[in-house]
Amino acid sequence: MIFDNPHEQFCFETATHFSAVRGRIAAGTRTRKFFETLDAAKAYAKTHGDGRTMIYAITDAGNSAHICNA
Q1: Pure H helices in 1-70
Q2: I need a labelling partner for 6 at 20 to 30 A (CA). Which of 15, 41, 56, 65 fits?
């Protein structure tokens, strides 16, 4: 995986879980689901089939970074 900055790499390498986020805050449609693995988050995203699910890595300290869209 290629990271855009050290923060993304740190969050990915120390992640305790991942989140899959869809929708828009302004439209009131934002949803977030949590997963133990990146693969599980990507599998959930794939059920939507549009590549618009944002996947975040989350550390034990609560830091997070956008990893990919799936």
Answers
A1: 6-14, 38-46
A2: 41
